[in-house]
Amino acid sequence: MAEGQWKRWDAVARLGAGKLTLQEAARVLRLSVRQVRRIRRAVERAGRAGLCHGNAGQVPVNKLRAAVRTRILRLRRTKYRDFNDAHFTEKLAEEQPPLRISVRTVRRVLRAGGVPAVRRRRPPKHPAPSRSQGAGRADAPVGRKPPRLAGGGCPVRC
Prior knowledge:
- The chain is mostly helical.
- The chain has helices spanning about 5-15, 20-30, 35-45, 65-75, 85-95, 105-110.
- The chain has six helices and no strands.
């Protein structure tokens, strides 16, 4: 049990022994009197299991099944090898039977399965300036103003 559950267990036990009133237990647990009554009833019915949340141990309803995950990984590694995540998601919707899931979910499944992102880099549109043009040279003049500021101020009249 977590620390908060131990506190609740202890408060309910002291409440049953008559060492605490409902108001004092509510103050200790930082809950309302109504919630303390609800917890006490749950403990009387189910013991310590009454302190646990009802959904504890349940599988989320919206979780992808393992079969769907393996199908996504198999399709990406074979038929749709060079597709990016968004285009691959569109193709999944066209498969038989169709898989209609979000790009984010597909991306999460693929990265967890060890499939890297497909990234094709384009060559740069403008090549970087070469070093011989004077930028960063050791023999470039130091302390001289650039020609656009040589007039002594802002190039635009303020």
